Fold Imidazolonepropionase.
Amino acid sequence: MTAPGKTALVNVRVFDGHRLTEPRTVVIDGPVIGTDPTGAQEVDGAGAVLLPGLIDAHVHLHGPESLDALARWGVTTGLDMACWPPELIKSLHELTGTADFRTAGLPAIGPDGNHARLLGLPAEAVILTPEDARRHVEARVAEGVDYIKGVAEAPGDGGPAPEALQALVAAAHAHGLKTVVHAATVGACTVAAGSGADFVTHVPVNGVIRPEDIAAMRAGHQVAVPTLTMMEALLAGRAPIDGLLASVAGLHRAGIEVLAGTDANAQPGVPGAVPHGESLHHELELLARAGLSPVEVLRSATVLPARAFGLTDRGAVERGLRADLVLVDGDPTTDITATREIRAVWCAGHQVAGAGR
């Protein structure tokens, strides 16, 4: 990676959150987007498209290699949904010149669900009662997490009791933190929709989300992170993905905000392999198949997750924001697969070596 300096990207068409601009100049001034090209190294974009750095709204980080893989594919921010111990999080925050991240730290799970069986989470992750949930939030707040993650399961599937999840959400909100609730089955979606969480991640792998749960999510102003890529991997060789796409289509028709997230991970034992970085481009293509327009898909990985997670310094190509940028060939506002045609990536002004591979 090159150190951030001053670079003028000339003759680039900028995605402004709604459309492409006419060719213009964008200045990278250290870690932020500037306006004065004086003294800058000039790079001719030759009419290529400049996107805000992409945001994956559901990843799992395992080390620096996770962040580097995200950065190479233009994913300049990863929203981590389970990272521990705190010492690992601290070490990742000390890195520069690679993808940035936010994290939930240790998630809250039930005693007998899939997360308890597969992920090797420490015992302190298990919540049985509302008091357990409140203690969990206090511990995560002390560690400095950015939001709280809970795992819903269908009744009888070993997840936290609904009242424990509701207490988790209430305690997080009392500390000014948003909450994400995992729901990977039809029954779990019902629990998540009633939890009061800000975000529901995944769509059901065993059917289509119920209309009444979509209505509850809309009434509660919940945001959806479908992770179609992971759910497709779980169904591979067993069933088509029509139900997954139908769930997203239903959420979208109802006016529920949909964010792009992949569940990218390198966790041994997890039944779905989803690589960091490249998978987000597949996720964008699946969202388009579910009925989102290319512009809506681009928004789902830029301005919308930045706004939803309170990341006010990114998500757009505007003066004073972080110089998180992706230069691509083609026009992703008409053909979403063009996001794969990466020429260059910058993370807070650092140009990423090996971008696009």
The domain at 6-51+314-351 is CATH 2.30.40.10 (Urease, subunit C; domain 1). The first helix runs from residue 64 to 72. The chain has two domains: 6-51+314-351, 54-308. The radius of gyration is 20 Å.
